Amino acid sequence: MTTVLVVDDQFLIRAGLVGLLRAAPGIEVVGEAGDGAEAVALAAETAPEVILMDIRMPGMNGIEATERILAQATDPTPRILVLTTFDLDEYVYGALRAGACGFLLKDSGPERLLAAVTAVASGDALFAPSVTRRLVEAYARQTASEQPADLDALTSRELEVLKLIARGLSNLEIADRLYISEATVKTHLNRTMTKLDLESRAQAVVVAYESGLVTPGG
């Protein structure tokens, strides 16, 4: 069973998400929260595998809640999926930088929601690469890192893989492009994330843009 915590300050939306997830096979809803502070407490108490996190909430918003949850989590850390109304949203970008695994539009259909939860639980990126790239490109120049990642620690192949990830290619597409196995792509990505102290594929994409490895529109 995949355990899920649902966080949304709007009762009807939260109730709808909880009802849909509880009706799906293989998913167990372990809690629901109406604000960021409650989400942080419940995440510590229930240790969910996946958290559906509303981003705009009164009090503690989804970005701060994401940071706190990941900071206090023990292995395995929860996979946080941000819920938003708009795909081009500076709050979403902030959440990705904070360590969220991706985002889902609130008007997504039931099948997309369930597929997203399944993808996140299995460790995959859960947003469309094209949307991720558009989002990052829209805000990378506005939100430059105070301390850009030092890419000198990466090998030439790791840099190559990181660049293709930032361009929106899947692991399988990268494997085909570089004539290596998909498992090797994952190994390079995992080593890159370890060297750069990153928590998610989304953060790797952001770092690629903020460090100048990939440029918007380039």
Task: Write structural notes for this entry.
The chain is an alpha/beta fold and 218 residues long. Helix content is 50%, strand content 13%. The protein contains 10 helices and 5 strands; from the N terminus they run βαβαβαβαβαααααα. β3, α3 (62-72) and β4 (79-84) form a beta-alpha-beta unit. The mean pLDDT is 84.
Sum up the structure in keywords.
218 residues; 5 strands; 10 helices; alpha/beta; globular
**How would you state the average pLDDT, rounded?**
84
Please state the structural category. alpha/beta
Taken as a percent bin, the fraction of beta residues is: 5-15%
Instruction: Note the total helix count.
Output: 10
**What is the CA-CA span between the terminal residues?**
42 Å
| Rounded radius of gyration (Å) | 17 Å
Q: Helicity range of the residues?
A: 40-55%
Shape, principal axes of CA atoms: globular
Taking pLDDT < 50 over at least 5 consecutive residues as the criterion, the unreliable ranges are none
Biggest sheet, in brief?
5 strands, parallel
Query: Helix and strand string, N-terminal first?
Result: EHEHEHEHEHHHHHH
Indicate the multimeric state. single chain
Strands, total number: 5
* Order of the strands making up the biggest sheet: 2-1-3-4-5
Pfam family, one: GerE
Modified residues (4-aspartylphosphate): 54
Keywords: DNA-binding, Phosphoprotein, Transcription, Transcription regulation
Domain HTH luxR-type: 147-212
